Amino acid sequence: MKNKTIFWQSLGRISYKPAWDYQTLLFEKIIQQKTNPQNSEPTENYFLLCEHNHVYTLGKSGKIENLLISESQLAEKNIEFFKINRGGDITYHGLGQVVGYPILDLENFATDIHWYMRSLEEVIIRTLADFGIVSERLQGLTGVWVDIQRNPRKICAMGVKTSRWVTMHGFALNVNTQLDFFNYIVPCGIADKGVTSMQKELGKEIDLQEVEKTIIKHFGEVFEAQMFPHSLLQTQEKTL
To answer: Distance (Å, rounded) from C-alpha 34 to C-alpha 61?
Structure first.
């Protein structure tokens, strides 16, 4: 039986490693449930939202040369760096961003990674439309973009990991993000295209909580799921 209930939780501002650990805990919980022959209950689905301190993450297929500053410069600028187990190359997370981590059993929805990625993009496209920003997909490149005909700029990066049809990692939507931090990397390994934010496109600061609420609404619509706020498991202590 498919379970289309998704428990969501907003973690607020949290360092990358505790959020990664928390994701992993939920991810492994679902996999253990799926692989337990004595289990007859439907698997659960989770969706975490947060804002990170300054951090660069490099996916398993990424190239370290796309990090353009040294270890000492990272320390000077108070930027963390992690090699992680998602797909994709290097990206930045930081203040003024809404980061989303869906930990879903796709057997509850559709066992199709292409469908899953396009669905995540659709959630963001609908969210941006509610704030007056026209955004699109750019053929051959994952994520959400604006102004693709004249000057393509990425506004939301995506990268995921799946195992036994269970997902982790997700997307990072630039809301009020300080875009200078993208100058120290080749974002997603794409050297010939820029990045942008909702604030830059609209010329004003945007309320992060309103963006989160809108994302949750559209996530439920796109995935045809019931979205419930939940404390989930006891979160680890946040490192600010």
So the answer is: 27
